[in-house]
C-alpha cells in the first residue's frame, strides 16, 4: 500500500508544476493546512537533488509569507473571522497554550514552532493576536523555517539515489510504523 503511494508521490515530485504545489503548500501550511511542507519538499529534493536548495528556499519564502498572512489574520480579523473558525475546529485550547508559551518564552516560541513539528500555524495567528513586534517575527520565522527546510533538503540531497532506493525498500514498514505511532499518540493524548 505505502510503496504504491510512495511511487505516486515521487511521480508528483518530478512534475513540472511541483514547485508551484510546494509554494502553495508552504503558504497555506503556515495559516491552516495540517499537512507539513516536508511531505512535499523531501520527495522533490530526492527526485531532483540538483534543485534541493532552490526547493528549500522556495518553501522558506512562501512559508514565511503564509506566516505573515496568518499574523495579519490574528492581528486584524481575530473576532470576526479567526476566533469563530478556531472554535469550529476545536482549537481554543491550542490558542490558550500558545498564548501561555508566548508569555513564558517570548520570541523563542516562534523559533521553536517554525523549526519543530509543533503546529506553526497556531503561533503565526497567535503572534498577530498578541501584536508581537513584526520584524522580530519575520526574522525568527525566516531563520527557523530556513533551518528546517534546508536541513530536510540537505539530507535528501546528501542521501540521493541510494536513499531513494532504500526508502522504496522499507517504505511499507516505515508507513505502518507511522500509522502505529499516530494511533498510539491519539490514544495517549486523548486520555
From TrEMBL:
Domain (VTT): residue spans on this chain: 36-156
Database matches in InterPro entries: DedA_domain (IPR051311), VTT_dom (IPR032816)
Any one GO cellular component localisation term in the record: plasma membrane
PANTHER family named in the record: ALKALINE PHOSPHATASE LIKE PROTEIN, DEDA FAMILY PROTEIN
Record key words, sorted: Membrane, Transmembrane, Transmembrane helix
Residues passing through the membrane, by range: 20-41, 53-78, 105-123, 135-155, 167-189
Superkingdom: Bacteria
Origin species: Aeromonas cavernicola
Name by which UniProt lists this protein: VTT domain-containing protein
Amino acid at each position: 500500500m505505502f510503496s504504491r503511494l510512495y511511487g505516486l508521490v515521487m511521480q508528483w515530485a518530478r512534475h513540472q508544476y511541483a514547485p508551484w504545489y510546494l509554494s502553495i503548500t508552504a503558504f497555506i501550511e503556515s495559516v491552516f493546512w495540517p499537512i507539513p511542507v516536508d511531505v512535499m519538499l523531501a520527495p522533490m529534493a530526492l527526485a531532483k537533488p540538483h534543485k534541493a536548495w532552490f526547493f528549500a528556499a522556495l518553501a522558506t519564502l512562501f512559508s514565511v509569507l503564509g506566516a505573515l498572512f496568518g499574523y495579519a489574520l490574528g492581528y486584524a480579523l481575530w473576532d470576526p473571522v479567526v476566533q469563530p473558525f478556531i472554535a469550529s475546529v476545536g482549537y481554543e485550547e491550542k490558542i490558550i497554550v500558545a498564548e501561555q508559551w508566548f508569555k513564558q518564552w517570548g520570541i523563542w516560541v516562534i523559533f521553536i514552532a517554525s523549526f519543530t513539528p509543533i503546529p506553526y500555524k497556531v503561533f503565526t495567528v497567535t503572534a498577530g493576536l498578541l501584536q508581537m513586534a513584526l520584524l522580530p517575527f519575520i526574522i525568527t520565522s525566516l531563520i527557523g523555517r530556513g533551518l528546517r527546510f534546508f536541513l530536510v533538503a540537505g539530507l535528501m540531497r546528501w542521501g540521493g539515489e541510494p536513499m531513494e532506493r532504500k526508502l522504496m525498500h522499507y517504505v511499507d514498514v516505515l508507513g505502518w510504523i507511522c500509522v502505529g505511532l499516530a494511533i498510539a499518540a491519539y490514544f495517549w493524548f486523548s486520555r
